[in-house]
């Protein structure tokens, strides 16, 4: 009996101390909350740090501290506090979720996805599992990583079943990887089951992407006629005028192949678009194989030509014919000979531009691209000329894989008739970035 009494007393004392510590921690939490409500964030952090000294293994205290740092936009400190919280409680779903949000705001997509995935795995509730899968999908979509969508879409379907939202992302994935028939199957089911109201534009967009790639132009035309204006306003990228604007822009930088592709779609969407038809006819005729005979004739007379002016004309004619025939490396070779004949030839801005376009299409950025990058800083050229130069540079840098430089050049080309093509090129770059290994 004498031994039991001291033990009981020790247990009571321990319980009293524990309750007292809990009361102190709760008081510090309450005071911290009061500080936050009065915008005294630093004082709130001090209160929580004091609480953590009392209960160092309390993950919720670290989470609260992270939330305050987040409100102060002090993301590194917030993330550090969240890491402390998840070390104390490896199944702290909300902490991983907030960590994902902070990395997302910091545009660190890889860490954001990693954090959301940890939140997904830590959560035991279906609602939250689906929520974090959608967070991952949203990150992938926002950064153009569409090829990585499939796994997460399938995971989400296992949790909650099929939805319009998940079918939309699946259609996006199949459009991205070139399986437009599967994308059409999915997106067609969606648009058949929804009302065309504001907020549904994205579903029609994936449907139109599939239709355009499958050359189902009549269906696109019919859809444009039937949908209300609030929807078609967001589907202007699927009209003949849009593709004609792309064609004109690519023609201005002498990228005739891209222009012809755009024109074929424009004519498919509207066979009565005479401007598109005439430009298409003109560009296609440039690839006449009979030009080979003319080129051969010029080349045979070059060696005996002594007059610099006449030789320059022949060299330039050969370069132009080779360019129109799509022999861009040959174009650069003969322009190089042309430019070496005289200083005047070397300074001919039209020839520099053609060489730059040839380098761009041969994906061999060289002297001319470098020259154009300097020309755009020359005040003697008009704004209209400069935006064309910038568009050429943007496409050239994109093809070379220098996406940062491409985007910077394209921003400078965003004006007037080039707005559509710049947005089109930005989408292409986003797609290329998303296809890169992370």
TrEMBL record:
<dbReference type="Pfam" id="PF13181">
    <property type="entry name" value="TPR_8"/>
</dbReference>
<dbReference type="InterPro" id="IPR050498">
    <property type="entry name" value="Ycf3"/>
</dbReference>
<feature type="repeat" description="TPR">
    <location>
        <begin position="93"/>
        <end position="126"/>
    </location>
</feature>
<feature type="repeat" description="TPR">
    <location>
        <begin position="59"/>
        <end position="92"/>
    </location>
</feature>
<feature type="repeat" description="TPR">
    <location>
        <begin position="25"/>
        <end position="58"/>
    </location>
</feature>
<dbReference type="Pfam" id="PF13432">
    <property type="entry name" value="TPR_16"/>
</dbReference>
<dbReference type="InterPro" id="IPR011990">
    <property type="entry name" value="TPR-like_helical_dom_sf"/>
</dbReference>
<keyword id="KW-0677">Repeat</keyword>
<keyword id="KW-0732">Signal</keyword>
<feature type="signal peptide">
    <location>
        <begin position="1"/>
        <end position="23"/>
    </location>
</feature>
<feature type="repeat" description="TPR">
    <location>
        <begin position="240"/>
        <end position="273"/>
    </location>
</feature>
<dbReference type="Pfam" id="PF14559">
    <property type="entry name" value="TPR_19"/>
</dbReference>
<protein>
    <recommendedName>
        <fullName>Tetratricopeptide repeat-containing protein</fullName>
    </recommendedName>
</protein>
<keyword id="KW-0802">TPR repeat</keyword>
<dbReference type="InterPro" id="IPR019734">
    <property type="entry name" value="TPR_rpt"/>
</dbReference>
């Amino acid at each position: 009996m004498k031994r039991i009494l001291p033990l009981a007393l020790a247990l009571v004392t321990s319980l009293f101390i524990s309750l007292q510590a809990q009361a102190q921690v709760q008081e510090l939490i309450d005071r911290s909350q009061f500080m936050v409500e009065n915008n005294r964030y630093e004082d709130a952090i001090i209160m929580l740090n004091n609480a953590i000294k009392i209960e160092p293994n309390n993950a919720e205290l670290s989470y609260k501290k992270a939330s305050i740092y987040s409100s102060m936009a002090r993301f590194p400190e917030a993330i550090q506090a969240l890491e402390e919280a998840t070390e104390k409680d490896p199944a702290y779903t909300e902490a991983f979720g907030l960590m994902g949000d902070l990395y997302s705001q910091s545009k660190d997509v890889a860490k954001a996805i990693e954090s959301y995935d940890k939140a997904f795995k830590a959560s035991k509730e279906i609602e939250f599992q689906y929520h974090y899968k959608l967070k991952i999908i949203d990150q992938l979509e926002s950064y153009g990583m569409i090829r990585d969508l499939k796994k997460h879409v399938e995971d989400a379907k296992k949790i909650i079943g099929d939805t319009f939202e998940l079918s939309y992302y699946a259609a996006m994935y199949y459009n991205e990887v070139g399986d437009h028939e599967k994308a059409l199957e999915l997106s067609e089911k969606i648009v058949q089951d929804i009302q065309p109201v504001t907020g549904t534009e994205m579903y029609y967009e994936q449907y139109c992407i599939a239709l355009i790639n499958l050359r189902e132009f009549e269906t696109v035309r019919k859809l444009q006629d039937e949908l209300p204006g609030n929807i078609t306003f967001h589907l202007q990228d699927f009209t003949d005028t849009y593709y004609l604007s792309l064609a004109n822009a690519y023609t201005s930088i002498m990228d005739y192949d891209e222009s012809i592709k755009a024109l074929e779609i424009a004519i498919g969407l509207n066979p009565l678009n005479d401007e598109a038809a005439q430009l298409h006819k003109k560009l296609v005729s440039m690839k006449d194989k009979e030009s080979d005979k003319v080129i051969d004739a010029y080349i045979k007379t070059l060696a005996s030509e002594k007059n610099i002016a006449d030789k320059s004309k022949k060299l330039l004619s050969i370069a132009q014919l080779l360019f129109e025939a799509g022999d861009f490396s040959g174009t650069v070779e003969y322009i190089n000979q042309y430019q070496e004949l005289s200083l005047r030839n070397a300074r001919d801005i039209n020839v520099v531009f053609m060489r730059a376009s040839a380098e761009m299409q041969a994906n061999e950025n060289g002297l001319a691209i470098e020259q154009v990058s300097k020309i755009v800083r020359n005040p003697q050229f008009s704004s209209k000329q400069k935006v064309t130069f910038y568009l050429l540079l943007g496409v050239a840098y994109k093809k070379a894989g220098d996406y940062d430089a491409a985007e910077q050049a394209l921003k400078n080309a965003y004006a007037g008739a080039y707005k559509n093509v710049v947005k089109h090129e930005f989408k292409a770059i986003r797609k290329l970035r998303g296809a890169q290994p992370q």
